[in-house]
Specification:
This protein is of the alpha+beta class and 216 residues long. 19% of the residues lie in helices and 36% in strands. It contains three helices and 16 strands.
Length: 216
């Protein structure tokens, strides 16, 4: 099902309702815009009137992608990781669950499930944060967007130089896994550590903690 939502540079965008996956449904606004209209695309993103506050709107490879609220399994994992991070980070760091992150990676603006950033690097009057100031981003895959988290966002977060990218992949091919990507350079992470759900994974400095995954 499609419906028009806005006009950008005389091109009509549409949204597409994908197959219902129990809260992990992606709704995508097309088409892909060229880099010359990046500022205009960001303006459209800022002016979007989403169906409700639980929806997310991201810019992924020149398209505005709107995703409805995730299901309870997804939210439980996010809550458990948030609690663990909150016990570990200094008081002057923040943990956001709804922050848009500009990675500087083409026409892309991502909203990770969690992002850790020093408080003094947050511009209070802005609508998104500079990814180069983030210390850790966390993505929890949904059925409709797992490949984006594994590839596109992987490159984007590396491009921004975010030191740590934690990918909690509920839909990995063989079994659910948690992968910590680190040491970003030249649009890629050069170190990866992957464990299956149930095994702990260490998160190094600047966080320096062990994340238990047995409750995932």
């Amino acid at each position: 099902m499609t419906r028009a939502i806005t006009t950008l540079s005389e091109v009509v965008s549409t949204v597409r309702d994908d197959i219902d996956t129990g809260g992990d449904r992606a709704v995508t606004a097309a088409p892909a815009y060229v880099a010359s209209v990046e500022d205009e695309l960001f303006e459209v993103w800022e002016s979007l009137d989403l169906p409700n506050k639980g929806w997310r709107a991201e810019i992924i490879e020149g398209r505005i992608v709107m995703t409805p609220p995730p299901g309870n399994e997804h939210n439980l994992i996010a809550s458990r990781v948030h609690r663990k991070l909150a016990r570990a980070v200094p008081e002057d760091w923040e943990i956001f669950q709804t922050a848009a992150v500009d990675t500087g990676f083409g026409n892309n603006l991502y909203i990770p499930d969690l992002v850790v950033i020093p408080q003094d690097q947050v511009v209070t009057h802005g609508t998104y944060i500079d990814g180069s100031n983030a210390l850790l981003v966390v993505e929890i895959t949904s059925a409709s967007n797992a490949d984006v988290d594994r590839t596109t966002k992987l490159r984007g977060y590396a491009h921004a130089g975010i030191p740590l990218y934690l990918l909690i992949d509920r839909f990995a091919k063989d079994q659910p896994t948690v992968t910590l990507h680190s040491r970003p350079s030249n649009d890629r992470y050069w170190d990866q550590r992957r464990v299956p759900f149930g095994e702990p994974i260490g998160i190094p400095e600047p966080l320096d903690l062990t994340l238990e995954t047995k409750e995932f």
